[in-house]
Amino acid sequence: MLVKKADFVISAVKPEQYPDDALPEIALAGRSNVGKSSLINCLLCRKNLARTSSKPGKTQTINFYRINDAFYFADVPGYGFARVPKSVKKTWGKMMETYLIGRKPLKAVIQMVDLRHPPSKDDQTMYDFLKYHQIPVWVVATKADKVPRGKWQKHLKIVKETLDMEKEDPILLFSAQTAYGKEQLWHLIVQQVAN
Ligand code: GDP
């Protein structure tokens, strides 16, 4: 996939601020620190378009990136930081829910989990939520470079079992460090936005 253009468009907190040109959208969701910004930068061959997080739960907005003027990536806030106050969690949850349930151009959600660890309760909740609302979901297991190749299958099995994944849902390995899985993920994205 040749990324000719990648523009950060807006950080939105409410639907009125979402882009309104009806281009298809792929959302990215995952625990804070899972490697979401790194994956976006890696896919787009940009160093710092999506800012990698240093502070827990810093991004509480939905960040839209327009790619090749053909579709959007919607980076939804990272979840799962215990230290975030309940009130903030609530606002967050509401914003995510409003977006994920109500967003017409949304074609699929890339749900990211860390390959090294079994998915957390929050990961499970997110996956169940997406399935319940019949939103297409692909699981991307990040930081593959940190797990020896010989153990990949074992770790993937744990991810699938912990999330109780549907057989038909794709699961992919990814490393922002080595760009492993990049072409495969692009392939899925291109197919889905063309539909
Ligand atoms: P975000 O909070 O989900 O946006 O996560 P970041 O992209 O900021 O990544 C969190 C940390 O994990 C950073 O220190 C990254 O350098 C590191 N990281 C992200 N992806 C990878 C990866 O594929 N391999 C390795 N080794 N480290 C990664």
TrEMBL record:
* Pfam families (UniProt xref): MMR_HSR1
What InterPro entries does the entry give?
Answer: G_ENGB_dom, GTP-bd, GTP-bd_ribosome_bio_YsxC, P-loop_NTPase
Q: For the EngB-type G domain, which residue ranges apply?
A: 22-195
Q: Name one GO molecular function term.
A: GTP binding
Gene3D superfamilies per record:
P-loop containing nucleotide triphosphate hydrolases
Q: Which cofactor does it need?
A: Mg(2+)
Q: Name one GO cellular component term.
A: cytosol
Superkingdom of origin organism = Bacteria
Tell me the SUPFAM superfamilies matching this sequence. Answer: P-loop containing nucleoside triphosphate hydrolases
Q: What's any GO biological process attached to this entry?
A: division septum assembly
Which protein family is it in? Answer: Belongs to the TRAFAC class TrmE-Era-EngA-EngB-Septin-like GTPase superfamily. EngB GTPase family.
- HAMAP family given in the database record: GTPase_EngB (MF_00321)
Name of this protein:
Probable GTP-binding protein EngB
